[in-house]
Amino acid sequence: MDQHKGTAGHLLSIVTILIWGTTFISTKILLTDFTPFEILLFRFLIGYVVLFLLYPRPVRTKTFKEEWLFISAGLCGVALYFLIENIALNLTLASHVGVIVSIAPFFTAVMAHFFLEGEKLTAPFMIGFALALTGIVLIGFNGSLNLDLNPVGDLLAFLAPAVWAVYSVLMRKISGLNHHNIGATRKVFFYGLLFMLPVIGVDGFHPNLDRFYNLLNLANLLYLAVGASAVCFVTWNRAVSILGVVTTSVYIYMVPVISVAASALFLHEPITSATLAGAFLTLIGSYISERKHGLIRRRELRKTIRSTQSSMETK
User: Fold this and answer.
1) Structural domains counted in the chain
2) pTM for the predicted model, two decimal places
3) DSSP letter string over 221-238?
4) DSSP H or E stretch at residue 228
């Protein structure tokens, strides 16, 4: 991998996670006037329009198998993941959901191990995962072991990162088709929105335009739609194509750390010693997982390149 290209991949991942880690603030503000489903629908609908304006050309696939990758990615990464997460938040504690969803890198690594080449599980990744998960638990429960479990809600919370792992693997495969990144992301959004339509009749939808005249609502909705959806899905998908799904997914560990910092900065929520310890462990675990796994992955890629070159020379 080219060094400059690799650096760009890490920068894209960092920018994406910085924005995703602060989205809960906007969501919390919007929940006063919007339902969870309405927020989801509007953010991806506006995001789709933005991506269309940036790249209006159609993305044409060659076979139904290629088209099925986009359909599945839209179902998993746009519709199912966010709907499952929102339902889980309504059934169980937010701290439980925050901790459970943050294990997405582990599910992603397992999926990649079996379905992608050059994305094998490594011991350093597992060590980093254990440290990061310990830190995330400390952050999520804030030093308090409140085990008020809701089996259905917690099970759904486990299902959400598994669905995201499938989406990550699908986007890695889509990146190999060499479509324009913005166009490919827009196509995924299109199918995600299609899968949301049946939910309108179940969750409820209120076409009340007065809510959009509130500048605070409009600003936060645009932040979610343009920043967290249109821009971040493009940057994340690009990072996945550069770094691979396992290395990129490690950055998800950082979301709870960023959320805590944003809570203190914007909502003036206190930071406890347990939170600080959790943030430290999460950072160390993320570093170990990304650094060691990245080195091993680059070493394997160099071996593959040398092997290919040797076989070509013998011919």
Assistant:
1) 1
2) 0.80
3) HHIIIIIIIIIHHHHHHH
4) none
